[in-house]
Design brief:
- The two termini are about 15 Å apart.
- β25 and β26 form a beta hairpin.
- By secondary structure, this protein is α/β, with parallel strands linked by helices.
- Helix content is about 35%, strand content about 20%.
- Strands 1, 2, 3, 4, 5, 6, 13, 14, 15, 16, 19 and 20 form a 12-stranded mixed beta sheet that branches. Strands 21-23-24-22 form a 4-stranded mixed beta sheet.
- It has 3 domains: about 270 residues, Rossmann fold (3-Layer(aba) Sandwich); about 120 residues, Domain 2, N(10)-formyltetrahydrofolate synthetase (2-Layer Sandwich); about 80 residues, Formyltetrahydrofolate synthetase, domain 3.
- The protein is built from 20 helices and 26 strands.
C-alpha cells in the first residue's frame, strides 16, 4: 500500500471512537481529574500529577528522524504506532505529541495526526481547534501586544525604545504579507505609528512557556519574565512591567492542562502544545510527559524534524527544564529521503520530481546514508541508545533495506528495525517493539547535555553548530555581538540556546543535502526568550511567519452534503 493522505482520511473517518472516559480509565485517570470536551476529548486536571505522588516513572522513549523532506518521513506515525504496538503486547503505554498548527494544516504539510493505521482521533477536531489552546495563546500574546501599544499611546511612561520592541503580534495561519507591517497608521487617536510584524502562533514565546511549565505558578512566573522591549537606557521591559502578565496567565489557565485523545486503536494520547522545531524547541509539554510517565510503563514522545533540531532542543532545553532523562531514541528514516540526500533526485514544493526514485537503487540509499550517519552521531553525543527505524513503503526493495540496515549499524546505531505501522497499525510494529525492548534491556542510557549553560553565548552556539550541524565555523552579524554583550551585562546569558534554521538540511541552506561539510553558519540575530528560559538564535533565512505554497492544502478542503469534512489530510 502506498502512503496516501486520502487513504488516511478514509481510515480515520471509519474508525470507531471510544468514549474518552474509557481511555482515561485504562491508564488510571479518575473522573474527578478529567474535564471532557464532548465525548471523545478531554483536558486533564493539574491536580492529577499531585495525586500520583512519588510513583515510579515508566520508560521514556524519544522519537526523532533523519533530515526530512517536505513530505515528512513518518516520525509521528512511528510515535503513535509504537505506543499502540506496545499496548498490543500488553505493555501499558501512551504517546505524547504536539497538537497541529493551522498554518501547516492549511499550507503544504496538511494535518499532524499521523497517518494510515497509526493515527490519533478525532482527526478533524485535533487538526482544527481541539480544545482551543492555540487560540488561547494567540489571545494572550496579542493582549500583551495591545498593552504595549496602549502604554506607548498613553505617554510611554516606561520610556520604551520603539526600535527595541521584540513582541510582534501572532496569528495561527501562514501569511507572509504580515511579516513586516506598519501599525498606528490612522489619526492621532489610532495610536503611535511604528514598524511591527506578525509571527505564527507556534513561534510565540507563550507557546514555549506553556510547554515548559510544570505548574500554574511556574507559568505565571515565566510569563512575568518575558522581555518585550528595552527602554532608552537598555533596561529590559517585561510583561510584568507592562501590567499584562496576570491577564495573560488568566487566558492560559485552562490551556496549561494537557489534552487527552486516543489513537485509532484506543491507546491514550496526550496531545499538548505545539511549538515548531525549526523556530522554537519543537516538543510537547513537560506536564503531559510527567503525567504519562507516572501512569504508564512506556511513554513515547517526539521532537520536530531531524535529530539536529528536534532532538538537540529536546535534550538541551526540554530535558534540562523537566529533569527527565530519555531511556532510548528511535530515529526514523525512509528510503525515499535517503535517496534524495544522495543528490540524485530533486524535490520542489513538496513534490518528488523524478518517479525513478521509487525504483531499486542501492547505491543511492548507501550514499544518502551520510545524512543518517550524522544524525546517529548527533544522538550518540547525548549518551542515549539509538535505534534506526525504517518507515517502510511498498516500493522499498529487500536489497535496499538490507543495505540500510548494514549502514545504520556500521554508523553506530545500537539496532535497526523495519516498521509497517502505517500499513498495519500495531500489527506492523512487532519488530519495532521487540527491538526497542531488547535495547532497553541491554543498553543503559548515560544521558548528558551538549553544553553547560554558563558557557558564553558564542561558545554555546558554536557547540551546537559544529557538533550537531557539522559547520566549519559560525559567522556572526555585528548586531549579535552587540546583543550578546548586553545580555551578559544584564546577567541573562546563562541559558540554553535555541537555534532557528531550515529543517531540510543539516546546514542553513535547504538545498544542501546529505552531510554538508566545510560550511559557515550565518547567525543573523539573537534575542532573549527569558520567560521560556532560552536565547533564541536566528540562522540563515529563517522566518517566524511561514508563507503559503503555490497550491495550499486548504484549497482542497470542503464540506460534503452530509456535513463531512473532505481534504483535511
Amino acid at each position: 500500500m502506498a502512503h496516501s493522505s486520502s487513504d488516511s482520511l478514509k481510515i480515520a473517518q471509519k474508525a470507531e471512537l471510544q468514549e474518552i472516559t474509557k481511555i482515561a480509565k485504562y491508564i488510571g485517570i479518575r473522573d474527578k481529574h478529567l474535564e471532557p470536551y464532548g465525548k471523545y476529548k478531554a483536558k486533564i486536571s493539574l491536580d492529577l500529577l499531585k495525586s500520583l505522588g512519588k510513583r515510579r516513572n515508566g520508560k521514556y522513549i524519544f522519537v526523532t528522524a533523519m533530515t526530512p523532506t517536505p513530505l515528512g518521513e513518518g516520525k509521528t506515525v512511528t510515535t503513535i504506532g509504537l505506543s499502540m504496538a506496545l499496548n498490543k503486547k500488553n505493555k501499558k503505554a501512551a504517546c505524547c505529541i504536539r497538537q497541529p498548527s493551522l498554518g501547516p494544516t492549511f499550507g503544504i504539510k496538511g494535518g499532524g495526526t499521523g497517518g494510515g493505521h497509526s493515527q490519533v482521533i478525532p482527526m478533524e477536531d485535533i487538526n482544527l481547534h481541539l480544545t482551543g489552546d492555540s487560540h488561547a495563546v494567540t489571545a494572550a500574546h496579542n493582549l500583551c501586544a495591545a498593552f504595549i501599544d496602549n502604554s506607548i499611546y498613553r505617554g510611554n511612561p516606561l520610556d520604551i525604545d520603539l526600535n527595541s520592541i521584540t513582541w510582534n503580534r501572532v496569528l495561527d495561519v501562514n501569511d507572509r504579507v504580515l511579516r513586516n507591517v506598519s501599525i498606528g497608521m490612522g489619526t492621532k487617536v489610532d495610536g503611535v505609528t511604528r514598524r511591527s510584524g506578525f509571527d505564527i502562533t507556534a513561534a510565540s514565546e507563550l507557546m514555549a512557556i506553556l510547554a515548559l511549565s510544570d505548574s500554574l505558578q511556574e507559568m505565571r512566573k515565566r510569563i512575568g519574565q518575558i522581555i518585550i522591549a528595552y527602554n532608552k537606557k537598555d533596561k529590559p521591559i517585561t510583561a510584568e512591567n507592562i501590567g499584562a502578565a496576570g491577564a495573560m496567565t488568566v487566558l492560559l489557565r485552562d490551556a496549561l492542562k494537557p489534552n487527552l485523545v486516543q489513537t485509532i486503536e484506543g491507546t491514550p494520547c496526550f496531545m499538548h502544545t505545539g511549538p515548531f522545531a525549526n523556530i522554537a524547541h519543537g516538543s510537547s509539554s513537560i506536564l503531559a510527559d510527567k503525567m504519562a510517565l507516572k501512569l504508564c510503563d512506556y511513554v513515547v514522545t517526539e521532537g520536530g524534524f531531524g535529530a539536529d533540531m528536534g532532538a538537540e532542543k529536546f535534550f538541551n532545553i526540554k530535558c534540562r527544564a523537566s529533569g527527565l532523562k530519555p531511556d532510548a531514541v528511535v530515529l526514523v528514516c525512509t528510503l525515499r529521503a535517503l535517496k534524495i540526500h544522495s543528490g540524485d533526485f530533486e524535490m520542489k514544493s513538496g513534490r518528488i520530481m523524478d518517479n525513478l526514485i521509487f525504483r531499486e537503487n542501492v547505491s543511492a540509499v548507501e550514499r544518502g546514508c551520510t545524512n543518517l550517519d550524522k544524525q546517529i552521531e548527533n544522538v550518540k553525543c547525548y549518551g542515549v541508545p539509538v535505534i534506526v527505524c525504517l518507515n517502510r513503503f511498498n516500493t522499498d526493495s529487500e536489497k535496499e533495506i538490507t543495505a540500510l540496515g548494514k549502514c545504520a549499524v556500521a554508523h553506530g546505531a545500537d539496532a535497526f528495525c523495519v516498521s509497517e505501522l502505517w500499513q498495519k497499525g500495531s500489527e506492523g510494529g512487532a519488530n519495532v517493539v521487540d527491538t526497542v525492548e531488547d535495547v532497553l534491556k541491554n543498553k543503559k542510557s548515560h544521558f548528558r547535555f551538549l553544553y553547560p549553560v554558563d558557557l558564553s553565548i558564542r561558545e554555546k552556539i558554536s557547540r551546537v553548530a559544529k557538533t550537531m550541524y557539522g559547520a566549519k565555523e559560525v559567522v556572526y552579524s555585528s548586531e549579535v555581538d552587540k546583543k550578546a554583550r548586553l545580555f551578559k551585562k544584564l546577567k541573562l546569558s546563562d541559558m540554553p540556546v535555541c537555534l532557528a534554521k531550515t529543517q531540510f538540511s543539516l546546514s542553513h541552506d535547504p538545498k544542501r543535502k546529505g552531510r554538508p561539510r566545510n560550511f559557515k553558519l550565518p547567525v543573523n540575530d539573537i534575542h532573549l526568550a527569558s520567560g521560556a528560559g532560552y536565547i533564541h538564535v536566528s540562522c540563515g533565512d529563517i522566518k517566524t511567519m511561514p508563507g503559503l505554497p503555490k497550491n495550499p492544502v486548504g484549497t482542497k478542503m470542503d464540506i460534503d452534503k452530509n456535513g463531512q469534512i473532505t481534504g483535511l489530510i
